[in-house]
Amino acid sequence: MATSSGRHFLQIPGPTNVPDEVLRAMAAPTIDHRGPEFSALVHGLLEDVKPVFGTEQPVVVYPSSGTGAWEAALVNTLSPGDRVLCFETGHFATLWQEMAARLGLVVDFVPGDWRHGVDPDEVEARLAADTGHEIKAVCVVHNETSTGVASRIGEIRRAIDAAGHPALYLVDTISSLGCIDYRHDEWGVDVTVSCSQKGLMLPPGLGFNAVSPKALRASETAGLPRSFFDWAPILRANEQGSYPYTSATNLLYGLREALRILYAEGLPHVYARHARHAAATRAAVGAWGLEVLCLDEREHSGALTAVLLPEEHDADHVRRVILERFDMSLGAGLGRLAGRVFRIGHLGHLGDLTLAGTIAGVQMGLGLAGVKVDPGGITAALDHLGQA
Amino acid sequence: MATSSGRHFLQIPGPTNVPDEVLRAMAAPTIDHRGPEFSALVHGLLEDVKPVFGTEQPVVVYPSSGTGAWEAALVNTLSPGDRVLCFETGHFATLWQEMAARLGLVVDFVPGDWRHGVDPDEVEARLAADTGHEIKAVCVVHNETSTGVASRIGEIRRAIDAAGHPALYLVDTISSLGCIDYRHDEWGVDVTVSCSQKGLMLPPGLGFNAVSPKALRASETAGLPRSFFDWAPILRANEQGSYPYTSATNLLYGLREALRILYAEGLPHVYARHARHAAATRAAVGAWGLEVLCLDEREHSGALTAVLLPEEHDADHVRRVILERFDMSLGAGLGRLAGRVFRIGHLGHLGDLTLAGTIAGVQMGLGLAGVKVDPGGITAALDHLGQA
Amino acid sequence: MATSSGRHFLQIPGPTNVPDEVLRAMAAPTIDHRGPEFSALVHGLLEDVKPVFGTEQPVVVYPSSGTGAWEAALVNTLSPGDRVLCFETGHFATLWQEMAARLGLVVDFVPGDWRHGVDPDEVEARLAADTGHEIKAVCVVHNETSTGVASRIGEIRRAIDAAGHPALYLVDTISSLGCIDYRHDEWGVDVTVSCSQKGLMLPPGLGFNAVSPKALRASETAGLPRSFFDWAPILRANEQGSYPYTSATNLLYGLREALRILYAEGLPHVYARHARHAAATRAAVGAWGLEVLCLDEREHSGALTAVLLPEEHDADHVRRVILERFDMSLGAGLGRLAGRVFRIGHLGHLGDLTLAGTIAGVQMGLGLAGVKVDPGGITAALDHLGQA
Amino acid sequence: MATSSGRHFLQIPGPTNVPDEVLRAMAAPTIDHRGPEFSALVHGLLEDVKPVFGTEQPVVVYPSSGTGAWEAALVNTLSPGDRVLCFETGHFATLWQEMAARLGLVVDFVPGDWRHGVDPDEVEARLAADTGHEIKAVCVVHNETSTGVASRIGEIRRAIDAAGHPALYLVDTISSLGCIDYRHDEWGVDVTVSCSQKGLMLPPGLGFNAVSPKALRASETAGLPRSFFDWAPILRANEQGSYPYTSATNLLYGLREALRILYAEGLPHVYARHARHAAATRAAVGAWGLEVLCLDEREHSGALTAVLLPEEHDADHVRRVILERFDMSLGAGLGRLAGRVFRIGHLGHLGDLTLAGTIAGVQMGLGLAGVKVDPGGITAALDHLGQA
Questions:
Q1: What keyword terms does UniProt attach to this protein (chains A, B, C, D) (predicted)?
Q2: Which CATH number does the domain housing residue C354 bear?
Q3: What is the rounded distance in angstroms from the CA atom of residue D110 to the CA atom of residue D129?
Q4: What is the ipTM of this complex?
Q5: Mean pLDDT of chain A
């Protein structure tokens, strides 16, 4: 085994590398959750969090995982037996619809090949066929963390509109928020689900729901039992800068600092950086002679790249070699992709040289694991990153 | 206004003062939630967390508030329409039964005066009367954070047994765990609910359920819809040292350090220290000529003391004076006690001299707010703290 | 032994309690000491550090202890065999003149009783007698950390002027800077010596020389060999925002944050707070029936109080009891005061309630150590601190 | 300008990247410098620091820069007018002998071309010629930080012995300690000078002298005036686990943690890692078609590589492009090498992938700055780093 020194390379598609400033901000002493300082913190945060969602509507922040925020979106807007339209874009879309079923909803799960995003035409066709408007919600994962395929949220909105269907539009932006351009208001999303540990560059522990007026209205009659995730008491308390429970104060400190960093860079620059890193990574994959999992040029994720290995190789072995030898974590293939792909996260707090080091590590690791690749991969990436 | 310098005195009954070591531990970089290092962390934690619960049974750790852990206890063990027996010991007991009702349970809410704990005899009588065993669970708040009254959990267990009743026993230890002696296994508690930001000396953001075998069996048939809070997938994943979602990694770092500190002091010493601080505080209150809210000597809380003011005084005014002049946060009167009491938290990471400073601040603040008190309060407290 | 929990009470007269914000600021990654970011840091700091010295002249910052800054003041301004006038105000004044002698200077050391500051009349008389102007420098310790006696720097300046003597005026403000009003320019001090770990609320590791134009001129011909402490290359490099060596970058981060905190409170408020804390402490000492070491009302230190014990008691025993039982550090008697006094530090980042806790701890510790004191000490202090 | 995100690449030859654990360790509260906890810290450190120096003799730790430790080595062992033999290996050797001259020593400065280390034969010849033993000390810089050339300390020792000369042997290991194999005792070094911010992976602020018995004896009669840097009172105080001044406590916390990390990796592994990184870097430089400054294969530094640019290029322009575009700091050419070379630091806390990112950044930066290089540089480095 090689010796290990230096910083770990955390290049999974989340949790991502938390900036030092955010970690230090989180190390401030916890304060009274009912005092004036906390109130000022919450008032500020609830405004500051809106731009990254592309919204002027309220954003509910939970002390929870992203799966908690999934549940919140469902239980606040739907009733037992409601029909929801879901799409098999990958592992996480599959888990979300399983959750829906477990909570008592009826799921239409449109099958997929895990290499494409949601097809807007399919959405339109499905909704147009639902003349009785039994479908109460359309659930889409913006960026499938398991595949590196990004669905086209704006086009799907237009498809729903084209079908003239009143279903709510629920979108999971867990691994896209703060990485890929996103517009809750403009795209008419009703609930945007997200969490802290990806593009927001925080440790895990916060879940988010951005909520449209239409979703808020739906919540007034939605019949699924709920208490912890209930928007109403939270939104009421938020008006006073408080929560109906003790919120995760120190993560909120981190959120304030992370948003500051994000907006200091500027969202358009943040998105462009992610796109550039994704393109450099695909350039390397192509030059190696390997295949990117995503098959549609319009759907390449800016946040991660899933790399498909030739059948005779075990992607988990490659990952293990890379972890042991180069102290870098990559994402595993999940569900039906287990052992077939590895995923390179290039999201969050990331500079060109760390990405270069990441690609260098993958290239060396592939070699050590016996996967024959062209050594021009790293050079192809640098050609992209080093453009004038 | 006096100038403010030095550390804030956070003497509310939680969140409590987080030890510096815990804050620094939490500032470590977030790691891969599916890697071997995380797995080792979880395996270690799930064992290490048991002694403070007094259990050898599994403890489920959620990225949530304490209210989330309340909900988890209910949805994992009960079905819609199930009857639960609750006791009005104060504000939080009231909130918990409201949650139960909101989730679709039927609540028997035994009224109380907010100055006493749960009466074991009342428990026995109620259960004995329930010959049809319609009551599926007895819900008790161990330490009422709103009143400083601690119910006698062991005696209530004996009362349930005396009634020969099969109801589950659910106990909220949110502000008692790590402060007041507690024995999940010995007292036959089925679900112990707790959270991070009190005696565990962590920031808020983690909820806990310690789960008895009987509760686990109940969860197999419990009919309330659940997903995020479902024990089963978590316990399954925990066997591999993982979670079915991304857990709040950095809070887990903090938990590891906080448990280390707690066990280094030794639980019996921790409980004795809390009891000693509580007694010193009551000595001061008595010497001031004020009244402690708790009326039963057997039920004084080791974690906080609620002080009742003469009718003509506004406790919130006193708190405000103390915050502005001495930079100390105290707990407000909640619900029906609003304005009538203030609460001194003396739990968590606390030494004699910080308690002395706390009592000094209360004494001076009472004076400045126009509440006539005997200045012997601080001396009475020191007499207690300084005993040979 | 009592259990130990909560924050340590560091009530020695320095190092003082470092604010959390300063510790976190110091935890930022070290940067290139020749890059533009460092340059901006230095340019900012060298301006920002001036107000606390009461100067518009340059301040040289060393990576050193305060003793290093003593040496710097001497070697930059004096030549082998030069005569310096020093005053035995206590342990540190004694050490400084020993250093002067060791470096090859000739010291006139005016004896003292360690209970008074420097007598301005004595200064005038000594200098007036030195008609040949052989005395090249007058060295005074502003606040004797070993005794809690503060010399009157402005009055001594007037005494020097009255004698019409050209000697340089070197002042040690190690434990007064940022605690007690100080005016380098107005009082015509030539070199002000200080360090980081007292009123500046930093960890130890930085030494300071504020330098008058007259001192700078003296340095051009001063003959003591010097290199590390030489002002000239530092002042030259400072113009570019750099140092001729690698400075203690992370302590500079801390200094920036500490100055921000100090100026946010406002220097007049800072000095008033220290004076108020000192008076409250003396009120307690008096009420206990003990004696404050300082004998002149005009010379009470705002930074610390040395408490003299009756002959039959060992002050170190009292300190040990307090450390073991209450986890509080107090200052020992030094030199000829060893075992006779203990010193209460009330300087730096300190609030009323921590001071109250400190006095409570001393009172209880005296009792436990068998020193009979009136328990009214704490009440006397609170009377002072709690005034409307 | 490209956007900047992710961690800064600090690839100068010191200060180096401080491990997160060290920064967090340094953020612990400052403690009483005369209490038992500090004493235990010092006793532990003074033992633990010895292996990295390869010594069982005392190591004096100063709150100072490395230049302070230079001065300490000279003033403790030499007297005014003493003759010292120095070698012009580069910028820092030049500065050290300038300091010696400024302190009153007479320097024999053997000229050099800044591309070679000290020639052992030259040492032997010089000393053999000094039949009157007027030379009191031989001063050698182990690793010239300005050139990336490492002198052969063991061979020079043998040369001194071969000449039968009694001169003291003073060695600067500022940028070699913890990077390149070093043996104070075995090589008969009398004073080893070092500091914190290079291979020891700490922020700047600590200087070191490892001291041989012969040097200690010399210090008894050495006549240069000294006080702050005087070994004697420090060594006396160290026996009690203390210092005669307030040491830089929080940097000592960091030192403890840094040594733990270093020894956990194991010194032989640490040295091998540095050598491997240096070789990979030289492989890249060669493949680019550029020249490494160091001309002797036996003298390549394991800590940094200085790269010589073709005459028509300005190395400072290259560095500026790299800083602005890729957020990486490289070392400038110093003294006579200004603008002619840039220096890549590959020392301290550094992993293979960060080195790969560093080389990638240099390669891209050279291209953007108009220096024509073969893009095979990065691949050549990866060939080296990725060997089975």
A1: Aminotransferase, Pyridoxal phosphate, Pyruvate, Transferase
A2: 3.90.1150.10
A3: 14
A4: 0.97
A5: 97
